[in-house]
Each structure stands twice: as structure tokens, then as C-alpha cells.
Amino acid sequence: MLRKRGSVIFCGTFLFITWNAILVLLLWGRPPSGQPEEPGGGEVKVGVRPTNDVVGDVLRMADAFEAELERQKKILVDIQYHQSLWDPSNKDRPKVVFPSQPVIPILVIACNRVTVRRCLDKLLEHRPSAELYPIIVSQDCGHAETAEVIKSYGNKVTHLKQPDLSDIPVQPGHKKFQGYYKISRHYRWALNQVFKTLSHSSVVIVEDDLEVAPDFFEYFRALLPLLQSDPSLWCVSAWNDNGRDGFVDPGKANLLYRTDFFPGLGWMVRKEVWEELEPKWPASFWDDWMRQPEQRRNRVCIRPEISRTLTFGRQGVSLGQFYDKYLRYIKLNTEFVPFTKIDLSYLKEEIYRENFKKEVYSAPVVTYEDVKQGKLQGQGPYRLQYSSKDSFKVMAKNLGVMDDLKSGVPRAGYRGVVSFMSRGRRIYLAPPPGWTKYDTTWS
To answer: What's the mean per-residue pLDDT of the chain?
Structure first.
């Protein structure tokens, strides 16, 4: 029975090819539309005969071939469909139905670093689906060598080029910050391309000097529904500012936090938030602008215990600020965490806030000296209390935690609390109980 069916399929394919060969010969030999054939007269609806009008001949032939080949294509598809039904291995196999999932594009901000290859290689290595995670590389600067690197990936990425490469007029004291002005202009243009031109509803922004973790895509996929449903959230970040090796719990790769500080460095934002920010987008220093109360509006971001991005770009407009002391030591997660299978409802505002306050303020208070000298007993957690800007900065700096504040908000902080590990024990560097708001003069 199967042998007969195979013969039928073979014959069908043979007839398909033969028919098209005969069709080409017939179409070539027929007269133009509306002219009689030789001999016998009569009209034909479609025909192509060589004339002195070469272009016209080609166009008429193309029209005729296109119509007929479309019909023949349908026949071939039917043959292939029936072949799949007759294949014994497919007889009892259930049809696979792919659920509809939102597309999350990855926007890579590039300029003049040929090392963008490292960033793109890791994105492509870990990307589970080209359809669900299209990679868009937006390049500023007009750097030819970097453009060639991006071009070498072919249709694996979409290469956009920021058209305005002109210098930006700045006040005399800001000439050395020209690069920051151009970066801000580029971000605005690139995000408009993603949201307005390409009509995406969300995006993950990655700079060209970032390497991503194996579960980078899984992380953002799992958190998108929360970002969409919780109005107290305005971004999801892959970055922990205090995520250096020794300052995070290696056994808690699945642990996530809410943070009042905008981390950046691999972050997801929704179209609605961009529509709010774009009309007032700043001319420069866009990331610090995002950390101002007027933009944050008491909203928070999600960030991980262990970073899902790692920066390898010491050279840039910031001239390696923080890189040698902090950024180069950030621990990149290597364990794949199936976030889409984990209940993340603990991150919702009401649940998280109450549980976090209880955890922090029920922890025993310890002194800075005890933490610094390793005199703590037990597993923790412990609370180390600060009462002023200066006390925070002194303790943070001496314990190896980033001590700068933006509009009063410490890096990775939530309700004034910074969580980190010290000698294997959890420490909460926290303000006194009853904290209500940030003091913007602490900057």
C-alpha cells in the first residue's frame, strides 16, 4: 500500500515538472492578447510572442508565468500535504499548536565598538526563537568597521543607522560631554523606531558592551506579564549594581527584588511608558534623568540578585567610571532558571512591600564594626542602620557597596534599604523604622 502511495507521489511530482516545462513552451509560442493564432483563428486570453518590444515581452511573460505558477504552487503544496499524511511516522502524531506569545524585540545600541560582535554572539547563542525575539541593532557614529561587523550577521539581525551624525550645540562648559548628548539623541531615535515605526509594544534595550546570561530571554519573558499588569512597575532590569562576586548569594539565582533605583544595563520598557517619556526626553545624561522623581513617580523596577548582563566595555564616554572598582567584578549568572514556571506573584506591590518590611525590620541590629570585622554569629539576616547621608556613604563605601545616590535613592535600594551579602551573611543596610520617603538633597 505504501509503495503504491509512494509511486503516486513520484508521478505527481514528475507531472508537475513536466507540465510546467510544456507550459513555458506553449506560452512562448502563443500570440499576444487579442491576436489570432496561425492557422485557424480564434482569440486567446494570455499569450506572449517575441516582438521588437523586449521590455514589453518580458513583462507580459512575467505576468503569465506568475499566474500559472501560483496555481501550480498550490498543487505542489497539496502533494506535500498528502505525503505527510501517508508517512507512517506521522500517522498517530498529534498536531502541534503554537500558542500566541508577544514578541519582545531586543534593541542593541551600537556606535563605534567592533566588540559588538561579542554582544551579538551571546544574544544569538542564547536566543530561543528568532520570531519571538527579533534583534534590532541601531548604530550611531557612522563607524565603518562596526557597520561591517553588524552587516556580517545578515538577516539574523536588523541593522538600523541613525541618520543624524552632526555635532550638537552645547554650552561651553559641556563640550567635553558631547558624547552624552549624542547618546541621548540616539536613544530617542532608536526607541521611536521600535515603538512608532515597527509598532512593537515592549522592548529590551541592550548596549553593545553587554554580554547576556543563558536565561536572559527567559527572565524577561516571565516578567513581561507583571510589567504589563502592575502600574507600580515601570521597568525590568537584568542588572544588580551591587552584584559583585561575594556580595550576592550564589544559591539564590532565582531571587528577584523590587528597586526604586533605575538600574539600566539591559532593561525592558513598555510602549506606554515611552510615550510618556519621549515628549520630555532630555538632551543628555538620560539615565540620571530617568532617576529623577519627576520621571520615576514612585514607580519601581524589578532587578535580580545575580545579574543577567555583564559589561565588558571599559572604554566609552564615561571613560571607565566605576569599571575598574565595581563593574568588572559583577557576577554573571550561569545557571538557567525557568522563570516562566515560577510563581512570581510575590513581586506584586502590596505583597512584596509588607513581606520586605517584615524581613528587614525583624532582623537583629548589628554594628558596622561587627560586620566589617566578621564578628557576626549565625546565618542572618542582619540589619545595619544608617541615619544620615554621611553615615550611609561611610558604611557603604567601607563595606564595598556602591555609595552614590541619585535624587536620594541608593543603588539597588528599595524604601532606602540596600541588600547585599558580607562574608556569606545577608546584610540590610537600612534607614530607621518608619521610613516614608527619599530626601532628594542626598545626592
So the answer is: 85
Q: Phi then psi for 421, rounded to 5 degrees?
A: -100, 140
Task: Check whether 77 has a pLDDT greater than 80.
Answer: no
Question: What span, in angstroms and rounded, lies between the C-alpha atoms of 250 and 238?
Answer: 16
> Strand 202-207 vs strand 106-110: parallel, antiparallel, or unpaired?
parallel
Give residue 84's pLDDT band: very low, low, confident or very high (50, 70, 90).
Answer: very low
- With a CB cutoff of 8 Å and minimum separation 6, the contacts of 3 are none
Q: Are 126 and 120 in contact, with CB atoms under 8 Å apart?
A: no
Collect contacts of 421-424 with beta carbons under 8 A, ≥24 apart.
Answer: 421/246, 421/247, 421/248, 421/249, 422/247, 422/371, 423/374, 423/376
User: Which pLDDT band holds residue 12 (cuts at 50, 70, 90)?
Assistant: low
Catalytic residue among 287, 370, 403, 439: 287
* Nearest partner of 103 among 137, 135, 133, judged by Cα: 133
287 in catalytic set: yes
320 pLDDT tier (thresholds 50, 70, 90): low
In DSSP terms, 233 is beta-bridged to: 300
Tell me the residue type at 147.
A
